[in-house]
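Two proteins, back to back. First:
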Amino acid sequence: MRPVSVLALAGAAAVSMSLLTACGGDGDEAGAAGAVAVTATDDACEVAKTDLPAGKTTFKVANKGSKVNEFEVLKPDGKILAERENIGPGTSVDFVVNLPAGKYKLLCSAGQTGKGPSQDVTVTGGAAGGADPRLSKAAADYKAFVIVQTDDTIAKTQKFVDAVKAGDVEKAKELYAPSRVGWETIEPVAEKFGDLDPKVDAREADLKPEEKKDWSGWHLLEKALWKDGSVKGKEKYGDQLLADLGTLKSRLPGLTLDPVNDMAGGAKELLDEVATGKVTGEEEAFSHTDLVDFKANVDGARKIYELLKPVVQERDAQLAKDLDGNFAGVEALLKKHEKGDGYVSYDKVGEDERKELADAVNALGEPLSKLAAAVAK
């Protein structure tokens, strides 16, 4: 679930801002030649060109406002074609998108609420050249992976919900984090279905007062288990969670995944999830199982990279080398915090250790932000 406020924990503020700068600053240099300039402020979204050719498009998004911004490319039905989150104030990014012909809205959302000013654009023509069969295979293999992870999520969530409905608090606590691993691994794909994501993964801290009456999903049950110590009366939320995950599964067969927008872009989104929710400790505010989610996000990003790696190695060998090294660095740090089959409670991870994790995410974020450009060459 994308965070609305990435600085909710005061103690993690310095870490969060350094990550927002690092994960949002890959376009601070000269930028890609021919990039479409986008100026985002707290209340405006100015796009230099509104008639664009189909195919690879680079948007150079500069955040000149005071809030963290996200940039979205929206289809006519309002669904997200591609998005770039966590563009910190005073930073800019080069955001590579594959645009088929059609009409779109480009939206800038200060505060990352999913709402904000937008600009209509028209894309005409056809993309140059034929599709690389390796990328087509990577997209097909990734879709198969997404389906497997969804099935795994449903199976493990069924066991979790069974414990909730039995009133077995300790068993439900044990099964809570494992039930979320598959979801966290494919989170950007799950978020494409905007109506489901808030039902399944909304955090209490992200809700407006009037929205709390409709709160549901994992984090409601997390709060009941760890803060209230009882899930009595919460059984219906377990059933609803399973029903919503079933709806996700039913929608996957018709899903088309693009190697640039959904895979390379999704890998970057997964790392942004780590930077703004897991490293800060915001994601699992009651259970403190953040490192389980952290690992799942990293594994999801790495899976995408591994599927795209044959193309990346050919087109940008240094980028492949950098990604291999930085993924290994993050995973080595995570290993230090292993405990049994899982990880230590995140409230036991000190500020210095959190900073170490943040630095590793920072180091991985820089080359990962170049993955889409390499794939789209």
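And the second protein:
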Amino acid sequence: MSTDIPDIDPLDGLRAPQDPDCDVFLTGTVFLDIIFTGLDSAPVRGTESWARGMGSSPGGVANMATALARLGLHTSLAAAFGDDHYGEYCWDALEQGEGIDLSMSHTVPGWHSPVTVSMAYEGERTMVSHGHEAPGPAGAAMPAEENVFPSCPPRARAAVASLVPGRIEPWVAKAAANGARIFADVGWDETGRWDLDALADLEHCEAFLPNAEEAMRYTRTDCPRAAAHALAERVPLAVVTLGAEGAYAVDSATGESAVVPAIEVEALDPTGAGDVFVAGFVTGTLADWPLADRLAFAGLTAALSVQEFGGSLSAPGWEEIAAWWQQVRTLTDQDPAALRRYAFLDELLPAAARPWPLRRAVPTLGFRHPA
């Protein structure tokens, strides 16, 4: 494929022969996502709604895997795939379309892929999902991520985990012991306890990236910044995402803190934006950027993603980032201070850039021949 922009390796100059081949390892459940966009309002019971747009793509853990791979990180995913056309499509889209290493993944005979239908409207989303736990070796049901690899995960620079209260994932401790830097997010605590001690794998984490509501509930604080400082007493690096207000981070090792406001955009579909933010932050951390630059880059990638539909489909690559940086500097009404916040991109991106076609997850199932 001929391009005007060379492949960008964010870790260029940092790689050594003894380093692991894998930059980031992650595991989880892959969904087939079907996304409807262009809805004027939420569907009304008893009526039929027509969407002006639709797309399909691998979802679930595939959102973050794709976001990492598009930023130039060598990404390895361990997941169970359904033994159906949906599973075949997701596998091909991730391995062939995105270059993600699936050597630790496998197809489960007789198991159908989990599916999520997402409806995006008014900057929000509504989702309906269906799926069954993947059968284990003896036919017993078990979470798909636990039915993947029987031993240690591969050596990696980093690994991304999703913490669940009361659950211990043995692979996290193994990855950390093997030298991986662990980054973790967390979901809503359905138990309502919001007990940090219930997040057993937090002790292995270098960075913890909850949203503001989650952070405040876990720390019993009423301010996201106070929550970040409280979390920094438990992990070396606490990052609290503030939605439209940006993100705030505290590095307990250096005592440094940083806040970066969000970029104002018109959101089409927020699906996967959190995953893209984490991927951007992991990239900047592995590249050893300053804390404020990491926050700015993570927020930028998330902002670019919500302007397109779908989770993995919308994750930006370097070509979108280069095109944005080139365009935004031509606008006359830009705040000079805001532009300086992203000046670190000058050292990463070529002087002249334009977006070019990139093979990605095909947004519609079933095409057998090029259109």
